[in-house]
Amino acid sequence: MQHEAARLLDGPAKCAVLSWAIIAFELGFPLAFSGPLACLAMVGAGIVFHALNARLLGLSRFFWIWPVAY
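The chain above was modelled as a monomer; its predicted structure follows.
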């Protein structure tokens, strides 16, 4: 699994883009309260984010704890 993360983060430009994408997602999360479609989009993006973290970092329980919080 480590090779997947290394391939994904193989340069400073990719790291910067992914970092800013995560920051934008986190700062944009209050938009989820603007309507049902925005809520589904933000929750869907959160599920994808946590699934990728669980996969890339090898944290098998990490993914399941997040949806339980909702």
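Residues 9 and 16 are 9 Å apart (CA to CA).
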